[in-house]
Amino acid sequence: MHLDRSAVINPIFSPPVHQTLPWREDLIAAVAPRHNLRIWDPNLVLARQFQGIDAVIDFGGSNGTREMADLAAGCVKLWQIVAVGYDKFDLDYWRRKRFLSLTVLVS
Predict the structure, then answer these.
(1) Which 3-state string (H, E, C) describes the chain?
(2) Separation of alpha carbons 63 and 70, rounded Å
(3) pLDDT of residue 4
(4) Which residues 6+ apart lie within 8 Å of 44 measured at CB?
């Protein structure tokens, strides 16, 4: 499989609501210069935020809801959980949505 490193994607970052420093700034600095990064806002309409999204970067997995999985299924190619665990993430539900790639990075 060839990876096109020049491809621009449309990811949305779901930061933890209780702990944002330094994770949020580090991720934005790494992703935003090359891609059309959006930051998930729990106060805005979810469906509108997921329009045109290619990937989800879910910090901790605790923000991911079944509603998000339903909206993302069929259009989001990658759902990446950056975490030390995913015990609050309904992994079985996401698997049934058949994402091309569901990645859990555990430190």
Answers:
(1) CCCCCCCCCCEEEECCCCCCCCHHHHHHHHHCCCCCCEECCCCCCHHHHCCCCCEEEEECCCCCCHHHHHHHCCCCCEEEEEECCCCCCCHHHHHHCCCCEEEEEEC
(2) 14
(3) 65
(4) none
Q: pTM to 2 decimals? A: 0.82
pLDDT surpasses 90 at 45? yes
pLDDT, one tens digit per residue, over 47-103 is 999 999 999 998 877 788 899 999 988 888 888 888 666 677 788 888 888 776 666
Distance CA 70, CA 68 (A): 5
Place of tokens 């539900």: 93
Q: Which CATH superfamily is domain 11-106 in?
A: NAD(P)-binding Rossmann-like Domain (3.40.50.720)
Tokens standing for residue 24 = 């949020």
